[in-house]
Write a structure and sequence with these properties.
The chain has one domain: Aminopeptidase. The chain is α+β, with helices and mostly antiparallel strands. Strands 1-2-3-4-6-5 form a six-stranded mixed beta sheet, sandwiched between helices. The chain is built from four helices and six strands; from the N terminus they run H-H-E-E-E-H-E-H-E-E.
């Protein structure tokens, strides 16, 4: 993804070859699931929602996503997250999902709250970027709190 606005939250960019390798590796893993966000009219992939760190014993996983910045605030990420949350809770029978967000990424925090996540805490100085430390906000969502 060569989108500077997206990459600033993930620490770098991948070229097309690296992206394809990452997707293949992710899709072979039992600890991760990657779902593309595509434009309905063109089928172009404009972002992803991923379940990571799958813990089947404790029935929980992390949620990670990115979306190309020209598609922000158009409902794509909201809709995609709702579909993946429904899949995680009702098909995979997970009990809990969590997400961790850079304290400066307020738009992502608002979106997580909009889909039902609750702020659970702060990991202080968890991210080191450009010579500075930043806090990471932890969010969680339980199946019983998820509304289809």
């Amino acid at each position: 993804m060569k989108d500077k606005e997206v990459n600033k939250w993930f620490g770098g960019s991948l070229n097309l070859k690296e992206e394809k390798k990452f997707i293949k590796k992710t899709n072979k893993s039992k600890e991760k699931m990657l779902f593309g966000i595509e434009l309905p009219e063109t089928k172009k992939i404009i972002g992803i929602v991923s379940l990571i760190d799958m813990d089947y014993k404790n029935k929980q996983a992390g949620l990670l996503s990115w979306l190309g910045n020209k598609y922000w605030r158009k409902g794509f990420s909201f809709e995609a997250k709702r579909i993946v949350l429904n899949y995680a809770f009702n098909k995979l029978k997970l009990h809990r999902l969590h997400a961790e967000v850079d304290e400066r990424n307020t738009a992502s925090m608002k979106l997580l709250e909009k889909v039902g996540f609750k702020k659970e805490g702060i990991k202080r100085d968890a991210i080191f970027k450009n010579g500075k430390y930043y806090d990471e906000t932890i969010f969680g969502l339980l199946k019983k709190d998820f509304k289809k």
